[in-house]
């Protein structure tokens, strides 16, 4: 492996445990492999880095079938092929609990590194896609009695969001172009949209105002689930693997135009160091415990 | 992280599972951390590569104490500090079985890469240290009734070999110097000395003759354990993390001189594709199943 000498090497690791991050009920083996890789590629995208290679460490329950393992590898291979990336190392051993550890290597030009700590008051906050969908898919898989009025096509969108998330490496070339002239701050929303906004604000020493009306998936999800579930999933569901980005107004609007209809401006960076969800006249504060504070 | 642009990036992964690779009985947490890192650094040494950085993926049993985790990190830090290497990424999650996944990144000049596939008949086989010691230490820890006649100092050598193995990164500068003029073929003995010789032979399309009399730890271990145990541990015990190297006669002798008394020439590479253990007039074949074939 020979990284570009002008670029910086970045590395990211994720550990997925059977019964915690996946299960027979929610994740067929092909999806386990896909999601494990997707999580790491999304970490790279969040840093502005393109993937170089991955390593795979497997601790496998001895009762798993060879078929299970093969399908999991196929899931890994499918998503890696989409991003021209190879498995360059690994280790397999036996355990009583199947555990999948992925380390991804990426590279990025120093001027294209996306950090969490550089957001400035006045910048707009852009999400590159819908949130709450992965969590919705998970809930549908865990509770088959849920969402019986869901059209099959819509159900498939939820399930696919959970089982086959797409890391936003496709956006890197646009982000790099914008970064020729402007700073972009951001991270991915793997731990939830609320968490991403809070972490960016904490790292940058700023606050944020999020417009509830701009979170279009809240009203969409509310068609089939309660409004409370919808808001909870959108803000705290996690694993949608979109990017949450802060950048100057003009560039933010340009980015949303390029990415297309799923991308939205959801709010703005402010000086006051709290994260406020604006719902008409009412304000909610988001906190790091991933639950709501009462309306203030 | 900015690797040297003239060097190749290499990467290695190891997964260690509680109850399989370590346990409360055999491995205090400090040693768990040390060994997990040692295994990966040894993989780098076996490729001729110096370490750049590691990532640590932890799936932790929720009943582990914070103290256990801190001590394990201290074990990692101790050995990493000795090799000027930092942890640059990681992930922690909960599991019912503690699993430690380490990925190490290293770099190596193309001309200094040690491969398994380049051994030539006529070359000598060098080991950089004693074998069977780690397995001996493990047995002493598992069976306190064993080796009651062992002097304490000797017992400590066995235990230390198991709990605090030393990856042979210290030898790289000598190996690189020799490789300016000669090919060195090799790997580490993490899966056993016998396995290393067999893998090198299989990759290189050659065979080997090993002199039992040159395996000095066999007679040493036989002082306190049975001769059969001694030979078994030396050939198949594993986790001694020494290097097993094939190189031209003159250079092999020079290497042994540089490394010092623990290093030994243990045999030679031959054209005939079998691995023979020479015991006076008798020959044993080693096989990949890590057990003896009967005397032929």
From TrEMBL, chains A, B:
- Which positions are annotated as binding Mg(2+) 5? 191
Kindly name one Pfam family recorded for this protein: AIRS_C
| Residues involved in substrate binding | 21, 239, 292
Q: Which InterPro entries match?
A: PurM-like_C_dom, PurM-like_C_sf, PurM-like_N, PurM-like_N_sf, ThiL-like
Which regions form coiled coils?
Answer: none
- First-level EC class: transferase
Look up the domain of life of the source. Bacteria
- Keywords assigned: ATP-binding, Kinase, Magnesium, Metal-binding, Nucleotide-binding, Thiamine biosynthesis, Transferase
Q: Which residues bind ATP?
A: 73, 90-91, 116, 190
Name the record gives this protein: Thiamine-monophosphate kinase
């Amino acid at each position: 492996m020979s990284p570009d000498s002008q670029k910086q090497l970045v590395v990211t690791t994720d550990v997925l445990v059977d019964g915690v991050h996946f299960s027979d009920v929610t994740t067929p083996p092909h999806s386990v492999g896909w999601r494990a890789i997707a999580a790491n590629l999304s970490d790279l995208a969040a840093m502005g880095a393109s993937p170089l290679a991955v390593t795979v460490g497997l601790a496998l329950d001895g009762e798993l079938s060879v078929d299970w393992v093969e399908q999991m590898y196929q899931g890994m291979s499918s998503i890696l092929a989409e991003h021209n990336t190879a498995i360059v190392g690994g280790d397999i051993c036996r355990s009583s609990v199947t555990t999948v550890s992925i380390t991804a290597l990426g590279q990025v030009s120093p001027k294209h590194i996306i950090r969490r700590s550089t957001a400035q008051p006045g910048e707009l906050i852009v999400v590159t896609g819908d949130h709450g969908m992965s969590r919705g898919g998970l809930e549908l898989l865990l509770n088959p009695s849920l969402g019986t009025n869901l059209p099959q096509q819509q159900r498939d969108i939820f399930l696919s969001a959970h089982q086959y998330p797409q890391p936003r490496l496709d956006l890197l070339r646009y982000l790099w172009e914008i970064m020729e002239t402007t700073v972009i701050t951001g991270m991915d929303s793997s731990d939830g949209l609320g968490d991403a906004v809070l972490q960016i604000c904490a790292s940058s020493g700023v606050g944020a105002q999020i417009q509830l009306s701009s979170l279009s998936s809240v009203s969409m999800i509310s068609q089939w689930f309660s409004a409370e579930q919808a808001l909870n999933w959108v803000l705290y569901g996690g694993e949608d693997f979109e990017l949450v980005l802060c950048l100057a107004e003009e560039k933010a609007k340009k980015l949303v135009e390029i990415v297309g209809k799923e991308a939205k401006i959801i709010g703005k960076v402010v000086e006051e160091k709290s994260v406020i969800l604006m719902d008409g006249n009412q304000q909610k504060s988001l906190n790091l415990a991933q639950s709501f504070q009462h309306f203030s």
